[in-house]
Amino acid sequence: MKEYKLTRDNARRLVMHALFKMEEAPKDGSPPPNAVCVDGIKADFGFHPERLQETRDEVLAMIPELEEEFMTEDGFSFLFLAWRNDGTTWAMLPDGTCDWSVLEGFFCLAQALGHARYALDRPLWIALPGGAPFIRFSTVALPATLEA
Q1: Domain ranges across the chain
Q2: Model-level pTM greater than 0.85?
């Protein structure tokens, strides 16, 4: 049986490691001044800069297990992020439903590291299936913004 790096438990562990802990966050609910902030699909994330970097090698080892379409310039729908490149799923809950929060967290973690980004600007998502963005990943750092 193949041993996968890209698993729900591994992704959740890395995201939780890189996030600020409650006791590190300002009491007013604002992001800490040194947070690496990224815009998620439904939530925004603020990662601790040092702990974020500690996740880099593991995240880069997980990216090649994603569907190949995610590595293209056009990206692929977020709706398909739960599948690996061999057709197996990695983000399912015990009841068989998808753990969308882990998918979003993994994408945002890779985005904060510079290895994922949206393929289309947010105003265009409404025209996409399910209103879900197309996203792309790379083991090589991606430009932070879409090229004009």
Answers
A1: 8-137
A2: yes
User: How many angstroms separate the CA atoms of 115 and 109, rounded?
Assistant: 9
Q: Which residues of 69-107 are buried (b: 16+ CB within 10 A; e: fewer)?
A: ebbeeebbbbbbbbbbeeeeebbeeeeeeebbebbbbbb
Which tokens hold the place of 27?
């009491």
Quickly count: other Cβ atoms within 10 Å of residue 52's Cβ.
Answer: 21
Q: What's the rounded Cα separation, in Å, for the pair 99 and 63?
A: 18
- 3-class secondary structure, 116: strand
Q: Residue 89, SS3? A: strand
* pLDDT score, position 30: 87
Instruction: Round to whole Å and give the CA distance between 63 and 69.
Output: 12
